[in-house]
Design brief:
Rossmann fold, binds nicotinamide-adenine-dinucleotide, alpha/beta, 263 residues, 17% strand, globular
């Protein structure tokens, strides 16, 4: 059996809020594969949660650092702290999204300039802001993975401006893949189906999204946290050495369906 060994590698994981976060699903796999991790989190109240979550991994946890990705000074401080410890990165996990509540409660037609700006800044530009800084401290042949969603491609009611932000995120991943390609650094997106997380529960009609996805998907089921973590692990590992700029679905085959019949 081929197993993935990331011993000696270092990952920066941005966007773990609790044990249900998809960023944690990826981080757990990376830690179990032997890599060390740095976690950046939004807001000081998240620090104790992360301390508890990561405690069992001991010396594999190199740093926990507060970083609001909409604040350049926070981003600069995060990477200065990594640099000050003499750490070189191998991987970056982007698991961050936010949009003001009204952008998903109101029709897309009513999206305000501020709603658009905030959603795209935090959910898409942050990949560029993190990757640009990370690349300076990253070994060649590294890997960057961001989490996206199908609403970038097709209309998903209520997802609204977040769909636009995810389209921008996926396009950004392709341009970053080009800029970093000659260094062997790959940039890919993983696109899970709906998962019960804090961010997802705030989407109006989320339970219906889960049921609908499972009933339409080719495999007639939703993907699991483990499935998402494993795909991230694969994209960090040398097993995916010639794959970059891609969006890879982990959704039980929902996105390949063009029509479904009631069974
Ligand atoms: N849950 C799903 O159904 C689903 C499906 C597809 C894609 N995704 C994507 O997965 C990623 C992770 O989301 P999740 O579902 O695990 O929810 P989550 O709430 O656990 O994670 C979202 C994270 O974004 C962070 N964040 C928000 N604003 C920030 C800011 N200004 N600065 C720094 N961090 C900030 C939050 O602190 C949190 O850690 C997101 O990109 C989301 O769009 C989720």
């Amino acid at each position: 059996m081929v197993s993935i060994d990331l011993t000696g590698k270092v990952a920066l994981i941005a966007g773990v809020q609790n044990s249900y976060s998809l960023g944690w699903a990826a981080a757990k796999k990376v830690l179990e594969a032997g890599a060390s991790c740095i976690f950046s989190y939004q807001g000081e109240r998240n620090q104790p949660v992360l301390e508890k979550l990561t405690a069992e991994y001991g010396a594999q946890i190199l740093l926990l650092e507060q970083c609001d990705v909409s604040v350049d000074a926070d981003l600069d401080r995060l990477f200065a702290a990594i640099d000050a410890k003499g750490i070189q990165l191998d991987y970056l996990m982007h698991a961050i999204a936010f949009t003001p509540r009204e952008t998903q409660e109101n029709p897309f037609l009513e999206t305000s300039r501020d709603g658009w700006r905030i959603a795209l800044d935090i959910s898409a530009y942050s990949l560029v802001a993190l990757s640009g800084r990370a690349a300076k401290l990253m070994n060649d042949n590294g890997s960057i993975v961001a989490l996206t969603y199908f609403a970038s491609e097709k209309v998903v009611p209520k997802y609204n401006v977040m769909g636009v932000a995810k389209a921008a995120l996926e396009a950004s991943a392709r341009y970053l893949a080009y800029d970093l390609g000659t260094r062997g650094i790959r940039v890919n997106c993983v696109s899970p189906g709906p998962m019960r997380t804090v961010a997802a529960k705030s989407i109006p009609g989320f339970s219906q999204m889960m049921d609908k996805t499972a009933s339409v998907a080719a495999m007639k089921k939703n993907a699991s946290f483990d499935d998402v973590g494993n795909m991230c692990l694969f994209l960090f590992s040398p097993m995916s050495n010639a794959t970059t700029g891609e969006t890879i679905y982990v959704d039980g085959g929902y996105s390949v369906m063009g029509m479904s019949f009631e069974s």
